[in-house]
Amino acid sequence: MADTYTQLVNSGPGRNLARKLGLPQPAVLRRYQPGQPLVTGPVVVLGDTPGADKLAAELLSWNLDVRRHAVPAEKLGAIIMVLDEVGHPTDLEKPVLAAAGSLRDLRAGGRVITLSRPASEASTPEAAAARQGVDGLLRSLAKELRAGATGNGVVLAGDTTAISPSTLGAVRFFLSGRSAFVDGQFLTVSSEDGSLPADPEQPLAGKVAVVTGAARGIGAQIARTLHRDGATLILVDIPAAGDQLAAVANEVRGTTLQVDITGAHAGQRIIDHAVQRHGRLDIVVHNAGVTRDKLLANMDPARWNSVININIAAQLRINEALLASEHFRVSPRIVSVASTSGIAGNRGQTNYAASKGGVMGMVRATAPLMAPLGGTINAVAPGFIETEMTARIPFAVREVARRLNSLQQGGLPADVAETIAFLASDAAGGINGEVLRVCGQNLVGA
Fold this sequence. Notes:
The protein is α/β, with parallel strands linked by helices.
């Protein structure tokens, strides 16, 4: 559903009226289009560490316009603070205040990215304080940015560095329009696994991907995005959605599998279809899900069980089949769709929030099982996304939900799909067990 308010305040008369009345002015976000530049202007890399030097050199090899110091009044596409060696909170002053001096020069749709290390791995209280300070710094800064700019962080765990494959993959994702509705979030890179694609426009070339719940909405958009990025698609949905499923499959030149994912043998049927039709299976996206909202005091077994069975129990059962299969053992990827409801809760959604919280727990516990295969499992947690479902929310409630994030608008199905496509790619091979929120930095639970 179109966000008429955002369209209005980005028109000439509407913009002037919003300014006079002091109304929110959500920006038109810089979303990815094939062939567009990675960033809209020079990239400033701040920091005096070897990691900063190496990252700047790598970005130069991408043909970006890289600065090691900001030039006054020069409009910037991105600011990257490399904070990988801070050992005391006072170490933050120089790079952070250097960034502060450039924030007013950040272009619309610009990016701010931090690179830091986990506080949990610090060897001293001072280092832990500095590292945890980066978390508060970045999340606060993201709420201060305007004109569709976003701020996100990459956390370098263990022996990973500023130029580890998935560090570079995460930096590229956060710089690009693919991350338009990801704001105030951190991704941890935990291994040296992964590789950047030879062709950034086709990062999933040669991969075979399954998308459940693919007949409409976010699932259909995931299929379109994975297809655009080069993947061969297998689209899964219930038989009742067969016509819609076939239409999406025709659009993305994929095959269909009509199956109830709650069935005992759904996982094996998915594997068999992939092997028989395509000879392999590389990516599984668990998108299928339902809501059956009711206050817990009024909840009945049918509503509770249908949500739990579809949203989480089916994923657990399918994953069990995948992990047991000899056909899912070459750098496999699983990406699940969770929800910010599973983080912050939502009135009338105890069953849904329990199921989506369960997805996040499953992802974290399954990650060690995927690692020996060179594989990963991650989740995205969407916030308010413009879909047929949210279009049915009463107008006043819908408007409030749209504005309760730092970008002051709802996301699009494409925003969820872009994030899933990144996590399914080889560039994210060193990112495992993570939950990335696609919520515009929702002000509740973000």
